[in-house]
Amino acid sequence: MNKLKSLLLLLILTLVTGCAATNQRILDSGDETQIQKRNYQSRIFEISDKKQVLRTVISTLQDLGFIIDNADMMLGSVSGTKLDTHLTKISVSVRPKGADRMLVRANAQFQNKPVSNPIQYQNFFSSLSKSLFITSNADE
Amino acid sequence: MKKLLLILLFLISAGCAPVIPKDTFLVTNTQLEQRKLETRMYDGIEETALIVASSNILQDIGFTLENSEIELGVLTGSKDRDAGSTGEAVAMVLLAAFAGTTAEYRDSQRIRVTLVVRPSKASKTSNYCRVTFQRIVIMNTGRKYYETLRAPDLYVEFFAGLSKSVFLTAQKI
């Protein structure tokens, strides 16, 4: 009887932790706060032209090997998928910040996990800022 | 014994989860070469007309348009096709029977395409067109693999088709 009770307890415990894991995965609620995430996923660029930034986001994503799944000028969003041995997905939004600046935010997933390493986002913004510099200075 | 089991478990779990490559979001020289392959410049055609010609060629080669944003010059499409050949399947089945394993061969594939038109600063009627093809191949066992298509002739043939489409659009055919 005791064994049965222990087994039941174990089963309930497994189910409860299973539920918690489901919620955690749906909401991506880990150790990081929303502010921490926004911090490393965002960058402000000193450009007032939303269309230029969006077009540059698209060409940077293409340079990085992504296919553009969706682009919306009005919403200022671009999503892409990279199918190259592994599956990588990214969503980028471009929103005006004041009169002459743009806030670019990116969030990515690799296979079935969110990309939470800030260095990956730093790399993305560094690639984007190089392209922005090139597009505003030359015909590339 | 317990330690050995723990190490084994650790190795299995570490081996199962692929790690994101360090240069995923850095543009490499290989990718810049790929950009050349995937891009052509078209002169004497307005941006909108080039997007229309592009959507026509995508339809010509059997793609279903999934998304478009004309203001940003983006077209995305996909198509499902067989991935292998009967010869390949037969060969794999024979090989597997000989080795006593399960045969695995390519069954179907989803091919995805993105085409982006962007204006060049050279003139109002000069535009760049960049196209990228990728595919998901599904094996008979249900396993999938992902691939970016890099064969130069694929892009040469595509742009030859687009050039014809540009001509036909200009002639309103």
Protein model, in words:
The complex is a heterodimer of chains A (140) and B (173). In chain A, 49% of the residues lie in helices and 30% in strands. Chain A has 140 residues and is of the alpha+beta class. In chain A, strands 1, 2, 3, 4, 5 and 6 form a six-stranded antiparallel β-sheet that branches. The longest helix of chain A is centred in the first third of the chain and has 26 residues, at 2-27. The mean pLDDT of chain B is 88. In chain B, strands 1, 2, 3, 4, 5 and 6 form a six-stranded antiparallel β-sheet that branches. Chain B has five helices and six strands, in the order ααβαββαβββα. In chain B, 42% of the residues lie in helices and 31% in strands. In chain B, α3 crosses α5 (152-170). With 173 residues, chain B is α+β, with helices and mostly antiparallel strands. The chains are: A alpha+beta (140), B alpha+beta (173). At the A-B interface, α3, β2, β3, β4 and α4 of A face α2, β2, β4, β5 and β6 of B.
Key traits:
heterodimer, A: 140 residues, alpha+beta, six-stranded antiparallel β-sheet, 4 helices, 49% helix, 30% strand, elongated, B: 173 residues, 6 strands, 31% strand, globular
Biggest sheet overview of chain A: 6 strands, antiparallel
Approximate strand percentage of chain A: 25-35%
Average pLDDT number of chain A: 87
Alpha-beta content class of chain A: alpha+beta
Mean pLDDT across every amino acid position of chain B: 88
Number of helices of chain B: 5
The geometry of chain A reads as elongated
Uncertain residue segments of chain B: none
The percent range for helix content of chain B is: 40-55%
Say how many strands of chain A there are: 6
What is the radius of gyration of chain A? 20 Å
Q: H/E order of the elements of chain B?
A: HHEHEEHEEEH
Rg calc of chain B: 22 Å
**Low-confidence parts of chain A:** none
Biggest beta-sheet profile of chain B? 6 strands, antiparallel
Helices and strands of chain A, in order, run as HHEHEEEEEH
Beta-strand residue percentage of chain B = 25-35%
Number of helices of chain A: 4
**What class would the helix/strand composition of chain B place it in?**
alpha+beta
Can you give the helix content of chain A as a percent range?
40-55%
The separation of the N and C termini of chain B measures 76 Å
